[in-house]
């Protein structure tokens, strides 16, 4: 062993020939990760858990009143609220994303140029907690009711003013709060239903997105017409149930 | 600090570059240790087909990327600004774990053309010294295409690259890229299937007199057994490719194309969750004695070695050199120093077309299958009088239709509400973009350094990036985007939205992970940090392998060249350095 090491060292400091030592030594791919758990990379925290995990019932009501205006119900789809965006947001806030885990969170925090990105010291939980309270405060002072109790058109007008910063909220920039809620609402509406939103894959049906299917080799030559496939998600899909009817097939009788 | 038993060679980082260097050195029989900062990865467990199609987890929450809390950077556009941390990844997406960014990459696999390696000489010969804008620090690479060609060829066979040769041993072939350098062999696999959008693109481009060809792709078009005997499955166009791992053993990566072979080599050891924090040098400062790394439990360990190869991706490679005092740090005020000098990026350009009466089925997609043309790239068109140099590879590559991100609506559409929903649904099936990944020239003001304020979790300064688009590249962007607009129009779009670069570099939206330079290769130690073998001029037993070696960026994705350079550097260590340790090129 000793002499072999010295020979090897010699290879790097003198001009001795290489490849003499093939076949010695041992493989050791060290593995120091804990045992496997579903979603261990970044778990969809508690997405299966019942009940609110982070939001208070009042906060959840306000979030619902926002997301059903960001994504209103119409012939194309149910509302963001009915699609589960409140559950989605609540689960996200209660998990690692809620504290922006993994992001660089060291100070000093200071405003940068518009090109330097989001520099707010507030994490996602704080943005909701402060923003929802401030929104209700603003509504009570200016519209004599909580946001969730205002009529749809009034809520739309307030949301539009948050988006453009026409309204000033206490403790958090209105645009920051609005962008946070808008981004999470869209995530919840379009993400796989395993995260709590996009119930019954409503957004995927709306768009014609087939979801978690992994193989389109049979459809590569489709020439400009929509491929109509029932969507499937990480938890399955309607085609797994006994009374499923393929979308292109005529309805089964009786 | 605990001192571990000595190794002959330590390789830092086990992505594309590190795995190829290890492969080149394996047969020397030397004791080789690969240190990888991130976790072990395995297709069956980490990219399982029943969990991998999760857009929220992989695309939005960036599950495969190194976390900024571990390896963040600070950014600013000019020296007069205070750099601030990129608190979450935006413009680029660095990787982590065995396979690196080469796990969640897209697989578009180019060779650079011969002229690129002689960038300055070429421009001077054709346009004259005085035509080169003063703002550009354009320079030659110090090596030639012909020297690198065998290693491009080897990478084609390692990764199972699909495509059609346009220049086979000097013979120009119909249907391939007529502008590419001569190849000694065709691609190992035929091109990928062209779906409807790329077909429209190819037809329109040909009508306009361009030379379209299928984009070269490291996603195999057929089952493939690579040069190390490892098997890959055919790509199924799953549409969860860029930013995801592949469940099919299709997308080429170190994980499936090299590491299983490395594990069979008795003299190679891989340690994961092992982050190298600096290179140690002896008293002369001219010899690396090994590396200091943190193991999974956070213990600092000294790993002695006779030779160190740093392969930790461009950003980390430059940062480790700055932190370890290798090469003189670049000073933009004086233009002296090489470590951090000539940082460049990739200029992103696109034109989105909105079509009527067509469904593109955008979810049928992959990172690299589609159509391309090179007529707008390099010096393939005459630049005399245009006021800029450079250009880009133009392509239509539908990458997938996962809808948190992949929803195009005409600008001016509300971002929420009933109208937003109507427009989103209307256009989901009916948009197709022509993109142009274009060149990025280096300038004296764009550079990398250590941040004076922001520190990582163990108190080391973050890397600081100072970057804005050079005037040359802004003009180039206007030019290529106007040409791409003609193509989109000829494809039959009813409405189109050109997106040339505008304003200062915005650090937030994803643009590309094609960050280059900062520790560049060359023939002159006053303007390069390594010689043409990627060997540090100052510390000859230190090799630094990755895109940080590019003196400027041409209009192509980098990885084909990163991997060819890794093969080249590994061969140089094996065939030259080990026979006669010391500087391989005269200073
Ligand atoms: C979304 C995306 C799409 C892309 N698409 C394309 C494409 O289509 N075509 C193309 O050509 N390129 C593409 N790229 C770029 C491509 O991924 C990189 O060029 C390539 O991975 C670089 O190889 P590398 O070995 O230098 O770095 P990596 O593959 O990132 O490997 C570096 C490894 O080193 C490890 N490491 C880093 N620092 C340390 C340390 N201090 N100690 C120990 N280990 C360390 C990292 O964890 C990583 O595993 C894409 C990248 C991204 C992110
Ligand atoms: S598109 Fe192909 S290569 Fe990419 S992840 Fe899907 S199957 Fe793998």
TrEMBL record, chain A:
It comes from the Bacteria. Pfam families: Gluconate_2-dh3. This is Gluconate 2-dehydrogenase gamma chain. It comes from Paracoccus lutimaris.
TrEMBL record, chain B:
InterPro entries: FAD/NAD-bd_sf, GMC_OxRdtase_N, GMC_OxRtase_C. GO terms for molecular function: flavin adenine dinucleotide binding; oxidoreductase activity, acting on CH-OH group of donors. It comes from the Bacteria. Residues 233-331 form the Glucose-methanol-choline oxidoreductase N-terminal domain. Residues 446-566 form the Glucose-methanol-choline oxidoreductase C-terminal domain. Keywords: FAD, Flavoprotein, Oxidoreductase. Belongs to the GMC oxidoreductase family. This is Gluconate 2-dehydrogenase alpha chain. It comes from Paracoccus lutimaris.
